[in-house]
Amino acid sequence: MSEHERQEILAILIFSFTYLLISGRRLKVLPLNRPAAALLGAVLMVVAGIMTPEKAYRAVDYDTLVLLLGMMLISAYLFMAGFFDWMADAVLRFAKTPQRLLLYLILASGVLSALLVNDTVCLMLTPLVVTVIRRGQLPLPPYLLALAMSANLGSVATLVGNPQNMIIGSLSKISFANFSWSLAPVAVTGLALEYLILGFGFRRVLKAAAISIPAQAPRPMDHRLAGICFACLVLVFIGFVSGLDLAWTALAGGALVMVLARRDTHEALKLVDWHLLVFFAALFVVVEGFNSTGLPDELYGKMRGVFEGGRTSQAWNLAWFSVLGSNLFSNVPFVLVAGKWMGNFHDPELMWKVMALATTLAGNLTILGSVANIIVVESARGHVEVGFWDYAKYGIPVTLGTTLAGMLILLWIS
Questions:
Q1: What is the pLDDT of residues 108-142, one digit of tens each?
Q2: Closest CA relative to residue 288, chosen from 156, 173, 167
Q3: Residue 46's pLDDT is what?
Q4: CB atoms within 10 A of CB 170
């Protein structure tokens, strides 16, 4: 066996071992969470000689990490301002009925996830939603599923809605406005379908429930800080639409909030999800090590027949393949691997959008489909247990319905 073949086998074994760990299957002998598992995989790639330290550094897409950091900083200051507490309580008081509360929660989660990162929105909102729903004496499951699914659906609308969209934006160079023009209608339609499916599935539970308005008001919102955050967010999105660099525009917005807020920056930085940043940095290294084996190109070569045909046929085949791949390997690593194939299609720009749509909406299939789902379910575990099939019986129809409708809309617009 040659040295090259030995390294190929090692790279495949390290890649497979890493994804066994990050897929949620913690081993008793090695109880690592996702960031730690990805970090271990990156270290093994370098130690095994598959990647040099220099190649490992170059493998990291720093634009994606900087973009994530900038959006997380703005979200952290919104949390410190009490905006999420205020919004959750306002939705409860305004809804008046359990059915309308479900609708308003879906809209709120969807819109916030389009503007901020969906994982961060779930991290900030889940404890508040649990508190509000319990204060209103309502059943938790329909609202937890609504929060997670709408965070995924809403995030498809923009290049900053979720990590895989950020990576697609960085690799494809599609403009922010162009991307949103095609995929915002998909998000709106998806949220409407989600409401219909959850509303029908939980109709008896919601009909039997009644909102009990709590006497205790949420902590007061710091209007000055919230105003600064939204003003900076508006400037950031103006920069996005104007074609400025996504990553540094977002980071500039986050830095401007830090300067104007006049609050303890340690408090804000503690709210940044550093684990997620470490996770993605390490993941870039692991995936690049795997790509260096040439196996992804061989896989595409064997499946080339599936992707042959016209523009529309290629789009549909990539959509179902992306849904399957995202649930087998997780959406971010799938995008990193499959992104190498885009130049082989008739219309690469459309295919990038199809991949964004399919990998994002595929996150609603099961609890393990996206990090947002896991955040919601794990954060609420002390109050209610949402099982795999409790989620999947709604996640499957939501995923199939929204993906089908979304593809029809995307192909019609494009």
A1: 899 989 987 887 788 777 777 787 777 667 788 89
A2: 167
A3: 92
A4: 19
Place of tokens 């503690």: 270
Higher-scoring residue by pLDDT: 301, 60? 60
37 within 8 A of 286, measured Cβ to Cβ:
no
For residues 153-162, b (16+ Cβ closer than 10 Å) or e, as one string? Answer: bbbbbbbbbb
Beta pairing partners, 30:
27
* CA 92 from centre of chain: 25
What pLDDT, in 10s, does the model give residues 190-231? 999 999 999 998 888 888 777 766 666 667 888 999 999 989
Distance CA 384, CA 110 (A): 23
SS3 30: strand
319 neighbors 358 (Cβ within 8 angstroms)? yes
Show Cβ contacts of residue 357 under 8 Å, excluding neighbours closer than 6 positions.
156, 183, 186, 319, 403, 406, 407, 410
User: Residue 385 above 80 pLDDT?
Assistant: no
**Per-residue confidence (pLDDT) for residue 28, from 0 to 100:** 53
Contact of 18 with 286, CB cutoff 8 Å: yes
Here the contacts of 373-377 (C-beta below 8 Å, separation 24 or greater) are 373/148, 373/152, 374/24, 375/119, 375/122, 375/123, 375/126, 375/148, 376/122, 376/126, 376/144, 376/147, 376/148, 376/151, 377/144, 377/148
Helix axes 388-413, 141-155, angle to 10 degrees: 30
> Could you tell me which residues come within 8 angstroms of residue 411 by beta carbon, excluding any fewer than 6 positions away?
312, 315
Q: State the residue for tokens 């495949």.
A: 12
| Alpha carbon distance 208, 197 (integer Å) | 18
Question: Cα–Cα distance between 330 and 350 in angstroms, integer?
Answer: 22
Supply φ then ψ for residue 48, to 5 degrees: -75, -5
% helix, strand, coil for the chain, step of 5 = 80, 0, 20
For residues 36 and 276, give the distance between their C-alpha atoms in angstroms, rounded to a whole number. Answer: 10
Helix axes 348-361, 141-155, angle to 10 degrees: 170
**How many other C-beta atoms are found inside a 10 Å radius of the C-beta of residue 4?**
10
